[in-house]
Amino acid sequence: MIDLRSDTVTKPSKDMLNQILEAEFGDDEYKEDPTVNSLEEYCANLMGFEAGLFVTSGLMGNQISLLVHTDPGQEVVTTQDSHIKNYEHGAAAFLSRIQFRDVDSHNGVYDLDILSETIKQSKIHKPSIKVLATENTHLATGGSIVPFEHIKNLSNISKSNDMKLHVDGARIWHAILTDPASVKYGEYCDSLTYCFSKGLGAPIGSMLLGDHDFIDEAREFRKKLGGGMRQVGIIASAARYAIENRDRLIEDHHKAEFVFNSIANEDRLFDEVTYKGTNMIFFKFDTEVKAETFRHNLEDKKIVAGFIKKEVIRLVFHKDIENEKLEEIVTAINYSSSPES
Ligand SMILES: Cc1ncc(COP(=O)(O)O)c(C=O)c1O
Asked: Which of 198, 225, 316 to mutate to test the pocket of ligand 1 (most atoms within 8 A of CB)?
């Protein structure tokens, strides 16, 4: 089977496993694992933050950020379709006891007039907004890249309104690699988390970044959530291998782009097919039945696709999809999306 459900399905490579074998270990709860310490420092420097904290998942990085930045009853601004609000099992309500306030967005980019008006309103009748959250790349719209200029605008807005700017950067390196000058997020954001376990190809782990005070508090919350770890150089070394080889992600963009450009568009089961410049292709259908037919047809051709919603199917390209398979994938898509198939 060719598994295109997600970039989380990637398996550790031989080189990654060899790097694990050579790693040094210590007890990370005593801050004595040299591989973890070095990873945190390397990642903080890379993006211009003061410090880093190795956490188990993207969800943990996002939710610890909310725990540090907010008190119960406060609000967090997010796009209507964000991961932090919609796909984290209600963790923000459960842990931080905050509520989300949606602001209109297009491809993960806020309408700045509506955002400013929403913040103004909150000073009169609504609970106070403490965090402005953004997601890059933006999953729900197909892995869209949020331009760095927009991040700078959000930084200005959050600073002038006594708010914290948090970036859910689960797949941020896909965005940065298309604009290498946009790497110093630390100059603009209060916290950022990204995943080693998606396109970067590690089996587990995310990095949470911020200033020293933020990371000290985040470490406390990580412990409270059961995320304190011991000789985790074993996974930090895999994460180190993944981040040092991040340039490889561009190959996944090329794979997705090649397939997208080869898809037949006339007389198809889907209404729309989109590619937003990173590693995903989204197919939108006007009915759930058509989406399921397409997914089922693909499965007959040994391709596994993922659902993003009942009428939206995604194909995610990653390191374990070899270039030699791309023609086969195109043929399968064209067969599966034909109304006669
Ligand atoms: C945009 C985004 N944020 C956060 C996460 C959470 O990451 P994890 O699965 O490591 O908890 C994901 C996972 O798919 C994601 O796509």
From this structure: 198
- For a mutational test of ligand 1's pocket, the pick from 168, 196, 225, i.e. the residue with the most ligand atoms closer than 8 A to its C-beta, is 168
How many angstroms is it from 301 CA to the middle of ligand 1?
28
Return phi, psi of residue 208, to 5°: -110, 130
The one-letter amino acid code at 289 reads V
**d(Cα 169, Cα 135) in Å, to the nearest integer?**
6
Amino acid, res. 322? E
Asked if 103 and 77 touch (Cβ cutoff 8 Å), the reply is yes
For residue 139, the ligand 1 atom closest to its alpha carbon is 1
pLDDT at 1 over 90: yes
Nearest-atom index, ligand 1, CA of 171 = 1
pLDDT digits (tens, 9 = 90+) for 158-192: 999 999 999 999 999 999 999 999 999 999 999 99
Pocket of ligand 1 (CB under 6 A): 57-59, 62, 83, 135, 139, 168, 170, 195, 197, 206
The letter for the amino acid at 223 is K
- Cα of 280 to ligand 1 centre, how many Å? 15
Alpha helices in the chain (DSSP H): 14-21, 34-47, 58-69, 83-86, 91, 112-122, 148-160, 172-178, 212-224, 233-244, 249-262, 288-300, 326-336
Note the pLDDT tens digit of each residue in 282-300: 999 999 999 999 999 999 9
Which numbered atom of ligand 1 lies nearest the CA of 137?
Answer: 1
Q: Is 90 left (phi over 0), alpha (psi -120 to 50) or beta?
A: left
**Helix, strand or coil for residue 167?**
strand
Q: What is the pLDDT of residues 81-96, one digit of tens each?
A: 999 999 999 999 999 9
Return the exposure string of 105-135: e unless at least 16 CB atoms fall within 10 Å of the residue's CB, then b: bebbbbeeeebeebbeebeeeeeebbbbbbb
pLDDT band per the 50, 70, 90 thresholds, residue 121: confident
Q: Which atom of ligand 1 is nearest to the CA of 60?
A: 11
Q: Which domains does the chain have, with CATH numbers?
A: 10-244 (3.40.640.10), 248-336 (3.90.1150.10)
